[in-house]
Amino acid sequence: MAVDAARSEEGFTSAGATRVMAAACRAAGLDDGGAELIRLGENALFRLASVPVVVRVARGEEWLRTARNEVAVSRWLAEEGFPAARIVEDLEQPLLVEGHPVTFWHLIEEGDRKATYGELGGILRGLHSLTLPAGLELPSFDPFGKQELRLDRAVIPDDDRVFLRKRWRELRDKFEELRFETPKGPVHGDAHVQNLMVNDQDQVILIDFEAFCFDHPEWDLMVTAVEHHSLGWQTDDQYAEFVGAYGRDLYDWHGYETLRGLQEFGMTTWLMQNVQEDERTAAEYRRRIAGLRDDDGPRDWRPW
Questions:
Q1: pTM for the structure as a whole
Q2: How buried is 47 (Cβ within 10 angstroms: 0-12 exposed, 13-18 middle, 19+ buried)?
Q3: pLDDT digits 0-9 by tens, 205-235
């Protein structure tokens, strides 16, 4: 039964997502018995036990267009022979179940290692060199598109919400002043190393096309640059491998500080959505909001 889109996202929990996943599997003729929740973030991801498939449940009906874009991007990258996640082709998708877009993806059998930052730089360089085909229309990168919904619905203290709305307005002003010098092209939109997987054939695979867009490549370089220069999540050698493989360090660009603010804000509001899930998530959110309140202070944020 369809429900109001706003209510469906507002009540997005692991239990609710599990119910939607089970209903979607029934509609698709798949067995959800033994399915495992492997991630709850912008989406809920479930690994089926019956077949090598991952089910992706989005937060609300407003993400239906995004889900359609993900399916289209996967098909295009498959045609290009680009190493990327593949949708299950013999299912009509996305499905809309109880106000939640649902997609089905082939399981990537993981190998014995994680992707390196050098491999991330190489994958992004290859992606940015591709040309979109006629008929594949993608949105521009929008660092603000999800923020208002997140701020409206998150279970956080009122003073945090007031602070975040003020910061949101300040970042919008800075964003309007940004001037890019690079041409637009295909952009992943959330290009951190966790969105690479290494399969059991030692092939590096790009995953998660939710933020895929047509825009300037700086949006992809922003993620790792901020993780290194602001958060210290990579060693100098790891970051040097990333820069060497891609060919550019965004830290040297005049717009870096604006992109840093946007990235840190997005990382905080992304986590903020799930503070009610457990104390570990709530504690990390408190670390991040404290960091945003002190622009010049050290960041002791944890990777999530």
A1: 0.87
A2: middle
A3: 999 999 999 999 999 999 999 999 999 999 9
